[in-house]
């Protein structure tokens, strides 16, 4: 299973960031076959913009 968490807060000490990291750790402990990515919303928007330019 592949999981992508897109969060809007770039603060590494913010609640959203800590929550996503906790979920990632717990999922990794339960099943090693899961792949988990965390992307900051600003980075995701930049990536989408770059992909649209390539169309």
UniProtKB/TrEMBL annotation:
Alphabetical list of InterPro entries matching this protein: Flavoprotein-like_sf, FMN_Rdtase-like_dom
Domain (NADPH-dependent FMN reductase-like): residue spans on this chain: 1-30
Lineage top rank: taxon: Bacteria
Annotated protein name in UniProt: NADPH-dependent FMN reductase-like domain-containing protein
């Amino acid at each position: 299973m592949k999981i992508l968490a897109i969060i809007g807060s770039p603060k590494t000490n913010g609640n959203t960031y800590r929550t996503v990291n906790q979920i990632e750790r717990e999922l990794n402990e339960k099943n090693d076959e899961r792949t988990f990515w965390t992307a900051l919303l600003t980075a995701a928007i930049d990536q989408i913009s770059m992909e649209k330019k390539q169309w």
